[in-house]
Design goal:
19% helix, six-stranded antiparallel β-barrel, six-stranded mixed beta sheet, Elongation Factor Tu (Ef-tu), domain 3, 23 strands, alpha+beta, 385 residues
Amino acid sequence: MHVLESGSSTLFFGPWYRKSPFFEATRRYGCTAYDIYNHTYLPGYYDDPIVEYWHLLKKVTVWDVGVERQVEITGPDAFRFTDMLTPRDLSTCAVGQCKYVLITDESGGIINDPVLLRLAEDHFWLSLADSDVLLWAKGVAVHSGMDVQIREPDVWPMQVQGPRSKEVIGSLFGEDVVNLRYYWCAEAELDGIPVVISRTGWTGEVGFEIYLRDSSRGDELWERVMEAGRAYDIRPIAPCEARRIEAGIFNYRSDMTLENNPFEVTGLERLVDLDKQADYVGKDALLRIAKEGVRRKLVGVELGNDQLSYELAEAWPVRGSDGPIGRVTDAIWSPRLQKNIGYAWVPIELGAPGTELTVDSPQGSTTARVVTLPFLDPSKKIPAA
């Protein structure tokens, strides 16, 4: 068991949770808090979150996101099986393309919202949010009658994000990788280190993900990225809550769970292709929900006037005249927008932009207003640049 002393707190690192191949590097570079995500240690912060936020927006950052575990699907029926897991139609997904998809259960509940990477005609990765999709996929495969192999490969992503990320990636992998289109990927190698690079990220900024395919080379890859980025003032940061909320990106488990379906989450209804011909898990339920409508909605909100100096540890109740009617799932100060922004579950009749809500925060009652998502850059011009 490893012990890390940090001020008045002590962190214990035991063998019951996984550590990414970049874990020791994150400690060397000053990470002082960790979270647990997909049974894996996730860096929580290195510096003040606002300092990290501005560095992301102005320069370039590197993140240990080895917690994004992969479900690898291969075999003669790999496409048909992968297409059966999601309500998004994959028939137009080319080799080398990535797709943001949903994995749904038989009732239409959201199991996960991974990024899918198609590495070959019969080779897929699901790059996961925080839930056990490996076990779900294996269970579905058992009685599917399809010839597929499902496993968790030795693959560990890191993200390089920010306006100078193209220069860093270009110095390491060349212009062909830099010129990848948004949500496309390619296999590459760095002095014998095998990787897959994708034009994706959890920021809404220009960025890349480097999927390491050999965990024994993790520290070496980290240092190569840091060396390439020194000229651009690269620094490691934790996943940036303020920037992902600005971009309208959701966090599975905090914003949505298995109890929610895609039509309840603003923007995710687009990931259900109602005209999809192929069968998939949850199809009948989702077609019914699309026809009947929903009773609640996850919406964007602006909250109060005083700057929040912390992130939510618990959901905040949204209150009606007779008691709680919903909850705020996330709220944070946006330094760029100069507003507190977040997400809230509300009854469908209160989900229209401009609706005023009353929220019970730890500091007392405050007002929130429903707004259109995302909070900025709705056409994704920034990350696609």
